[in-house]
Amino acid sequence: MVIRERYSDQVHSGEILDVLSLNGTPACLLDLRLQTVTLNQQMQGTLQLQESDMSFSQWIRSFGHTGQQRLQQVLHNLLTDGNRESSVQLTDINKYKYQCKMVHLTNGQIAFSLKSIKGLNDGPVPMTLSSNKHKEAPLSLNQSVGYQHHRNMIHMFGTESSPMKNRMMHLVDKFPHGLALINHNWEVTYANPKMEEMTEVPFLQNYFKKLWDIFPIREHYHFFQQYLRSMETQETVEFEGYLKKTNTDVQVTVHPTEMGITVFLQDITEYKNQLKALRASEERFALLANNIKDVFWISQPDFKELHYVSPAFQEMFGISRREAFLDPNSLMEKVHESDRASLRTALDEMAKKESEVEYRLSGPKEESKWIRTKGFPVEYYGNSYVLGIHEDVTEYKEMLELKEKSQQLSTITQMSAGIAHEIKNPLTAIKGFLQIGAANPELRDNYQEIILDEVNRIEAIVQDFMMLSKPKSSIQLEQVDPEQLVSYVLRLLEPEANEKQIYLLFDCDPIQDKFETEPKRLNQILINLVKNAIDAVDLGGEVRVSIQMSSSNLTLSVRDNGPGLTPQELAKIGEPFFTTKEKGTGLGVMVTKKIVSDLNGEISYESQKGAGTTVTVTLPK
After folding, report:
1. Taking every annotated instance into account, which residue ranges of this chain make up the domain Histidine kinase (predicted)?
2. FRET label pair with 514: which of 65, 82, 391, 505, CA 20 to 30 Å apart?
3. Where in the chain is the domain with CATH 1.10.287.130?
4. Mean pLDDT across the chain, nearest whole number?
5. Which residues contact 214 (CB under 8 A, 6 or more apart)?
6. Percentage of residues in the chain with pLDDT exceeding 70?
7. How is domain 397-472 classified at the CATH fold level?
8. What is 165-271's CATH number, 2.30.30.30, 3.40.630.30, 3.30.450.20, 3.20.20.70?
9. Beta bridge partners of 602
C-alpha cells in the first residue's frame, strides 16, 4: 500500500509572509508542531532579541512573570474555544506595555503582533479577550497544544460551557485505552497518555506528522491496511494487532469521523496469554483423555444433560458420544437389569457427595463387563456440575475371583491336611488299643476309656467342621435376654473352672431391652471364648465377662489374666490350625469368627505378653 500524501511547508507560505510583514508591526509566528517562534525584525528590536528563530519558551521569557501567565492563559482559551482571534495586555521585562493580538492560522500556526500602549499606569494590566472570559490555571505550551487537538474530540460541544469541555478533555486523558486522532492528511492530531504508554511514542512531539513517519509502514503494514479500509469505506473496523516495540497484543477499533479516523487500542496481552495457557491446558487434557482407557465425564446434577465425555466412552459402552449427548439415558439401557437400581441410587448420591458404584454391562452371548463409576459434585462460577470417571474393572474382578478361589483352594488344602493329621492321631491310638485288646481279651476293659476319649475327640473335630460349613441363611432370629444367656453359659462352664480354681466374674449394666439374635450361635460364641480363656489362665486365675448394650449394638467382652500373646501370635489368630494350646486345633477360633460374621458382627483381639488377653464381640441390634 502506498499513500501518496506528502506535507509541504509551502502550502501557507503566502499567509506566513503576510503575518511577518504587517507593515512594520512587531510580529512573530508560532509553529505549534515544532514549538518554535519566527520573529520579524520589528519584533526582534522591540523585545531586544538577537535571533529571529527560537523556541516558544525562550520567546515568552521576554515578558514578565505575570505576562507569561496571561499569555499562556489566552493561548489556551484560543485553542480550546475554536476562536480565530484573541488579545491580551502584556508588560515586558523593561516595564513596557503592549496589546498582544493572536490570530489562529491554518495548519497549527498562531501569529502574534504587539502594539505599544502609552499613558497606562504601572500596575496589574487587566486581561481582555475578544472571546469568552475564563479564570483557569495557566498551562504549558505542550498542554495548550494538546488541548487544541482535544477540540477535535469535543467539537460537538461547541455551544457548551468551558467546564463541560474541560471535563470531557479530562475524561479523554484518563481513558483506560489508547486513543488517537488522525486527520484526512494522515497526520496525528492527538493521542492520549495511554496511547503513548502502549506505543512508547512521544506524540506531543509528533503532532501533525504523517502517520508513516511515526510508524514505519513495513513494520505496521496490517495496521495501515485497516486504517485505509476504514478511511475509504467510512466504516468502523475492528482487528487484532501486535506492537513489536512494546511486546503488546492489542484490540484495535478504527472509527471514521468527519475529521478523519479515531483509533482505539485496548491492551489484550494478558487475555491472549491466558488464552494461550488455556489452549495449552486443553491440548494436554486432550492428550490425556485421548490416550487413556478410562472415561472422564461432566454432567448436570440431574444427569439429564452431558457436558463432556472423553473419547474412550464409545469403546467402553458401545455408544457413540453423539448418541450419549443427545440421550444421556441411553447408557442405562446397557446396564444389567439387576444393577440399574443401584446405579440410579449412586448417581443421585453423586449430586450431593463423592460416591462410587460397580455394575455390569449386558454384552453379547451373555458376556458381562464390570464398570466402576466414581463421581462428585462441584461448583463452577455459580453453576453446579457432577464430575466423574468410568473405569473398566472387568479384569480386576476376574483377578479377585481367581485370587479368592486360590485362597479357598489353599485353605481347603491346608484344612484337609489338618483334618487328616488331627483325625489320624486318635485313629492310630484307637487302632492300637483295639489290636492290643484283640490279642489280650483280659486287658480289653483297661483301654475302653482311652478309646472312648479318642472317639469323642474325633467327634468334636467333625462338629467344628460342620459348624464352619453351616450356611448363614439357616439363621433363625429370636428375642433373647443377654444377661440370662451369659449367666447360663457361665453356669455351664463353672465346673470346669472350679477344677482349676479359676474365678468366673460377670459385669453387667442393668439391661431392660431384649436383643434379637440366634441363641444357639450366640451361646456357641460365648462358650468358645470362655473355654479358651479358662484354658489360657493358670491355676487360681481369673476370667471376667462383661456385657453392654447401646441403642445400636450389643458388646460382649471376655478378659483373662493369662500369659497373653506376642504381636506375631496375635496376627495369626484365626488361621487354620494355629493354636497356643498343647492339644488344640485352632478350629474353635475359626468357628467363633464364622459365627460372628454370620450374625453381621465384628470380633477383635487385644493382648500383651504377660498381661492377658481381651476378646471383644460387637453385634448390631
Report:
1. 418-621
2. 505
3. 397-472
4. 79
5. 188, 201, 203, 206
6. 78
7. Helix Hairpins (1.10.287)
8. 3.30.450.20
9. 618
pTM for the whole structure? 0.38
Q: Out of 53-57, 133-137, 416-420, pick the least confident.
A: 133-137
Q: Give the closest residue to 467 by CA, choosing from 596, 603, 600.
A: 596
Neighbours of 90 (CB within 10 A): 25
Q: What's the CA gap between 300 and 279, in Å, rounded? A: 24
Specify the pLDDT at position 568: 79
Domain with CATH 3.30.450.20 in the chain: 165-271
Q: Cell numbers of 156, please?
A: 460537538
Within 10 angstroms of residue 160's Cβ, the number of other Cβ atoms is 12
For domain 13-116, which CATH number applies: 3.40.50.720, 3.40.1550.10, 3.30.70.640, 3.30.450.310? Answer: 3.30.450.310
Please report which helix (H) or strand (E) contains residue 542, including its range: strand 542-549
Task: Report the CATH fold assignment for 475-620.
Answer: Heat Shock Protein 90 (3.30.565)
Is 36 strand, coil or helix?
A: strand
CB under 8 Å to 92, separation ≥6 — which residues?
47, 62, 63, 64, 67, 98
**Alpha helices in 126-254, H assignment, sequence order:** 141-153, 162-173, 193-199, 211-214, 221-233
Phi and psi of 181, rounded to 5°? Answer: -110, 135
Positions of E strands within 12-84: 27-31, 36-39, 53-55
* 524-542 average pLDDT score: 85
| pLDDT on residue 425 | 66
Range(s) within the chain of domains with CATH label 3.30.565.10? 475-620
Residues of the chain with CATH 3.30.450.310: 13-116
Determine the Cα–Cα distance for residues 251 and 241; give it in Å rounded to an integer: 6
Give me the pLDDT at residue 127, please: 34
Average pLDDT over residues 219-240: 93
Cα dist. 281→173, 270, 407 in Å? 39, 16, 46
Q: Break the chain down into helix, strand, coil percent, rounded to 5.
A: 45, 25, 30
Alpha carbon distance 299, 310 (integer Å): 12
Please list the alpha-helical segments (H only) found in 327-393: 330-334, 340-350
**pLDDT, tens only, 340-357:** 999 999 999 999 999 999
Indicate the pairing of strand 542-549 with strand 503-508. Answer: parallel
Between 131 and 524, name the one with better pLDDT: 524
Locate cell 496511547: which residue? 195
pLDDT digits (tens, 9 = 90+) for 88-105: 998 888 888 889 998 887
Lowest mean pLDDT among 479-483, 499-503, 588-592, 597-601: 588-592
- The pLDDT of residue 46 is above 50: yes
